[in-house]
Amino acid sequence: MAQKLHNVPLFPLSGHVLPGGSMRLKIFEPRYLRMVREACGQEPSGLIAMAMLNNKGEVAHNTHIHPLATLANIVDFEQRDDGLLGITVQGVQACQLHTITTDDDGLRRGTVVPIEHWPRAALSPEHQHLVDGLRHVYQEYPELGMSTDDSGFAHADWVCLRWLEILPIDAEVKQQLLQTDTCTPALHYLSELVQASEQSQ
User: Which SUPFAM superfamilies does this entry report, sorted A to Z (predicted)?
Assistant: First the structure.
């Protein structure tokens, strides 16, 4: 079993970052400003867990946070024009959340176990529309911070993770897809979803 990491700061969001992805965030709540300061002062530096919100759970019992999360590094900072702190996080590895505690200011921390995710898988020509569509999204929305030339475009697992980050799919569905042994179920699900969207335009 992978070594447990204790007291990892949790950042539950409606937006999602998964292994291999990145996200730009603005930080304004005091608890998350403290999270950034503490995370960047510890080893490994800048490590937090990006978690998905569960709208069926209860905040009081921390069941509003889904158990499958992403260990992420804070890799960049900026002072935004609006005066807020901007950070960029990069997804490193999937992890399972166990015990969750709450600090006095509302910052959640968790015991996390890093887990191996989907094995690398080649992308077949029949799913080229997923690559083309993803490149188009990244070109249209450069603020997502993802390159259209990333080597990951050749791999079905990477492409699926990127689509799961950006599509407005219910977090519970994402959790179910991410807990499968391979990316094949997600690949079929996303292929049908993207094709249906393209045909309706």
Answer: PUA domain-like
Q: Concatenated DSSP letters for 97-122?
A: EEEEEE-TTS-EEEEEEE---PPP-B
Give the three-class secondary structure for 201.
coil
Domain count, the chain: 2
Average pLDDT in the chain: 93
Q: Are 147 and 20 in contact (CB under 8 A)?
A: no
Cis peptide upstream of residue 30 (ω within 30 degrees of 0): no
Domain of residue 166, residue span: 125-200
**Angle in degrees, CA 169, 175, 176, rounded to 5:** 100
Question: What are the backbone dihedrals phi and psi of residue 179, each rounded to the nearest 5 degrees, phi first?
Answer: -85, 0
